[in-house]
Design goal:
Elements: H1 2-11, H2 17-23, H3 29-41, E1 45-47, E2 55-57, H4 60-66
Antiparallel strand pairs: 1-2
Helix pairs in contact: 2-3
Length: 68
């Protein structure tokens, strides 16, 4: 999550799986994909399938306000 937040803040868009893998020291994009899917399942990310820059960090404060 730290890498994703920093990358998005610097570049204004989410990284590709290749960039994400390199930034996290992983050897393959598949490992980065698994991590993104797990974060999505935990509710920390939203992902647009088949979009090149389709990862978005979910703002938990919005979910808290909506639940009121």
């Amino acid at each position: 999550m730290r890498f994703l937040k920093a990358y998005i803040q610097i570049h204004g868009c989410s990284p590709t799986y290749e960039v994400l893998a390199k930034g996290m020291g992983l050897k393959s994009r598949a490992n980065a994909h698994r991590i993104v899917k797990r974060l999505e399942a935990e509710g920390l990310l939203d992902r647009k399938p088949r979009k090149f820059y389709g990862v978005k960090i979910r703002d938990k404060s919005v979910d808290e306000v909506l639940s009121l």
